[in-house]
Amino acid sequence: MYNDLEILNNLENNILNKDEIAFLLKSKNSDIIFKRADEIRKKYLGEEVHLRGIIEFSNYCKRQCLYCGIQGQNSKIKRYRMSVNEIIETAKTSLPFNYKTVVLQSGEDNYYTDDMICEIVREIKKMGFVITLSIGEKTYEQYERYKNAGAERYLLKHETSDTQLYNTLNPNMSFQKRIECQKNLKKLGYEVGSGIMIGLPTQTIESIANDIIFFKKMDYDMIGISPFIPHPDTILGESDIPALELIKKVVAITRIVTKDTNLPVTTAFSTLNNARGREEMLQVGANVIMPNITPVKYKMKYELYPDKACLTEVAFQCKGCLEARIKSIGRCVSTNYGFRNKER
Ligand code: 5AD
Ligand code: FES
Q1: Mean pLDDT score, 67-84
Q2: Is 164 a residue whose pLDDT tops 60?
């Protein structure tokens, strides 16, 4: 018979076993898992919470991911694209908030040429921001161009390490290709972010345990763990929403296993628990929040899933709200760039 404390010690000592992790994910003793995760977060990263402003600059997407509200075949959604200037201006407007990073995210939208992406990166970097790109699968050469223009981080989630489930959920895409992209990014010296969704159809606890082992193997610099929230305009619209407790356990175990990785409070989690979700995730291992700085008229249309948190708040309201939440649990807003290992 397994014992929770013994497993926690194993995980802390980098002894990872799928069945043991699955046992913990099913355990009723969440509190000891949460406590251990919080201790490890404190030991490796201290009390600082990094705020990274995200601009969702286009909701056009050429892919057809079954779970995603902005997938290309959804004809109900109103599409928008911000111009290069609008994107640069949005970053500029956020300067007073003192966020150290700007995350540029969009659907996979070929409207933006590499020249345009490089110009956006260059201009925003000049303002003193670190740039994270989250614009999907590109070639090695494209990633290299963005890197040379000044991008330093890239988010490319694989959503599940179950190859078959991945290939079902993402038509005309392949798990292998996805991981190859992540490896290319790593080779180019990016900090690489990945992540998964919990509650995907047919996903099992054992599969989530494998996801966590895969995180360790790939040594990601950032890992986002989100609940899957069914979108009514997709064919998965009738699915169930996963238990928040399970998401928190996945975050906590990921912290215990990966030690110093940046773990964001995901917006999907805040959406399911707008009252206390951010505080709760910060207390089970998370150390990053990504306030949305997209202009309100656009962010309402970036509907990956329904009822996204903070859709009507303008950026400066989010800043005040988040700072108060962070302070209320004895943590502080970081004033550095929040790279994983190095600081400048
Ligand atoms: N529920 C939760 N998260 C979703 N995403 C896309 N669709 C959903 C959904 N239905 C997330 C994925 C993707 C990111 C841009 O949004 O993690 O990588
Ligand atoms: Fe856009 Fe999946 S629908 S990346």
Answers
A1: 96
A2: yes
